[in-house]
Amino acid sequence: MSKPSLPQGTRDFGPAVVRKRNYILQTIRTVFELYGFQPLETPAMENLETLMGKYGEEGDKLIFKILNNGLDNKDKEVQVRADFEKVLEGKNVKGITERALKYDLTIPFARYVAMNHTQLSFPFKRYQVQPVWRADRPQKGRYREFYQCDADVVGSRSLLNETELALIYHEVFTRLGLSAYDLRINHRQVLAALAEVCGGSDQLTNITVAIDKLDKIGIDKVKEELVTRGLTADQVSLIEQYLAIKGSNEAILTGLEKLLGHTEQGKSGIEQMNTVMAQLKDQSINIQLDPTLARGLNYYTGLIFEAKAPATVSIGSIGGGGRYDDLTGLFGVKDIPGVGISFGVDRIYDVLEELQLFPKDLQISTRVLFFNLGEAESKKAFELAQMLRARGISAELYHEATKFDKQFKYAEKKNIPYVIIIGEKELQEQTFNLKNLQTGVQSTLPFAELHSISFA
User: Fold this and answer.
1) Can you tell me the distance from the alpha carbon of 38 to that of 347, in angstroms, rounded to the nearest whole number?
2) Distance between CA atoms of 269 and 266, rounded to whole angstroms?
3) For residues 394 and 300, what is the distance between their CA atoms, to the nearest angstrom?
4) Under 8 Å between Cβ of 338 and 102
5) Domain segments of the chain: what residues?
6) What is the CATH architecture of 364-452?
7) Deepest of 99, 268, 338, 443, by most Cβ within 10 A of its Cβ?
8) b or e along 27-59 (b: 16 or more beta carbons within 10 Å of the residue's beta carbon)?
9) In CATH, what class is 15-354?
10) pLDDT of 311-364, one tens digit each?
């Protein structure tokens, strides 16, 4: 028998890791609920046609496709072989695959809204915490199966939504101790204006896909890619001028105004960013305008966000999102605007782990361990353990009567702070020995006093 293993880019999560992940997820859920968002879940897989063509050419390559059932049907063997040949050529063949694992939570959410828009009350605010899958190259902070936490508002064009989403980022990261996070924004209309002055809207995808790689490959490689995508030397020079706009938020707005303010889209995008910045002015939030931010997903139409880990951690992006005013139009339902953000839970976990920001008491589940010292003693111990559980205090009875040393080691390994020992003498006297393993203090108390101990 071969040695058991995991698919590349996936992981098992033991109890210690799950507790830390739940700490992150609960923090995010709590903040989502504070801002009026409701929970939603969608299936792990979607119809292939729902996903394809929604994430740009790079994203489409990373979609995990699912083989249809019945491909071993002998009656269809010739056709199946022919269809597989087409799949190997990069084509999508319904006879081979009609479904895929979801790439993100936004497109499935848009599909949900399109299917249920007549029953929803707008604006509809939902949050979603589920795994997604991408056929990416596994590396530090990048996995093939990972969780996303999304918050979206559909049915509203108000920029107050963008303001509140920025504040949600700030609140979550502050609660997690990531005060040095980096939140950046840009606007897709600004990028569309750049494409316009570079020859037309048909250049937008070419420009954003290349710009989105700036942090990874550098300006020279970006320029090379733009040339390979058909842009002229003058157009590449103009894009380089755009990417060189830096400084304070005010300086960046001024630079964008000079370069793109004469276009209708450029003017609109700049004004909207200015509005959001003004709304956030008195909120003690650090937010930076970043013209290089592109987020190479075709469905974004307005303000876009990216949250990055503190510079001391080489993780990169830990969240992102933006406005998509015609996302449901992809499914035949027009005029439902939307905006949303996503948290990269797996990367946030890695950041908190590296910076040692997880609370120290996360690994304490059981508060009290009752020693097992015999049949009569364990019967009473079980009765008292049930009494503590009824009060909401987690308790265990060691599973068998054995040496003290073994039971103490069990408590220490599970970080159980208190042990209660009831022997033959204590049973006769209706008392118990309570030991605090963190301080070493031990005391003998009557059974009646167990009702008043908090075990905090």
Assistant:
1) 24
2) 5
3) 47
4) no
5) 15-354, 364-452
6) 3-Layer(aba) Sandwich (3.40)
7) 338
8) bbbebbeebebeebeeeebbebebbbebbbeeb
9) alpha beta
10) 888 888 899 999 988 878 889 999 999 999 999 898 899 999 999 999 988 888
